[in-house]
């Protein structure tokens, strides 16, 4: 591939290593013309299988767009949405499958969205999981309450600082 600094049409691979989980390869390259170095990352492309059976390339942009409406009026920034889309992509990639069902993407969004903003999470879940009664909301809200209790209990057990910063 061409050099991103001087656009020289060729580059030389000087090092290449596979990520710990085996899902990507990073290559360190050097330009033979300006001698600057840069890194490329190679991953399998991820496809989304839509309900119609058609496939399209996975897009973080689409994830952010899909969640943005649920976040209206909430303290959620564009950076938060970009980070959420990144987390969704990472969790889908760890499944190891190159083709993902559109439905699974909705599921993968719910976890990180709940961490980001619980109101946006309830809005998104109510559409995605087709809530059709108050009971559905009550169930989701009790789930959140139970989680709050669990995380408060967890804080009490947390270790009080690390003593292992050896000199
Ligand atoms: Zn160059």
TrEMBL record:
Superkingdom of this protein's organism: Bacteria
Keywords: ATP-binding, DNA-binding, Metal-binding, Nucleotide-binding, Repressor, Transcription, Transcription regulation, Zinc, Zinc-finger
Cofactor mode of binding and number, as noted: Binds 1 zinc ion.
PROSITE patterns in the record: ATP_CONE
InterPro entries found in the cross-reference section: ATP-cone_dom, NrdR-like_N, RNR_NrdR-like
Location of region: Disordered: 148-167
Family that this chain belongs to: Belongs to the NrdR family.
Record-given protein name: Transcriptional repressor NrdR
Organism: Cellulomonas wangleii
Taxonomic lineage: Bacteria, Bacillati, Actinomycetota, Actinomycetes, Micrococcales
